[in-house]
Amino acid sequence: MGRIRVRVRVTDDCTLCGDCVRYCPGGVFEIVSGKLVIHEEGCIYCRGCEPLCPARAIKLEAMDEGLKIIRHSLLS
After folding, report:
1. Residue bearing the bigger pLDDT, 55 or 2
2. Is-above-0.85 flag for pTM?
3. CA-CA 20 to 30 A from 32: which of 3, 12, 20, 66?
């Protein structure tokens, strides 16, 4: 099974707070010399960074055509 291709977009609203760097299980985000560096190849499309970002500056988009994403939720 191949990896999902994802486009990670970060708007100018990013404040470099570092929450995405600390949270991301794929190591997609890195702050280098005061700039956010994005390593899209590590993205597993968990989408946890989108609601985590206090500036709402991160947007993810799956690039694979016909891909069906199934999300599971915890049972209460």
Report:
1. 55
2. no
3. 3
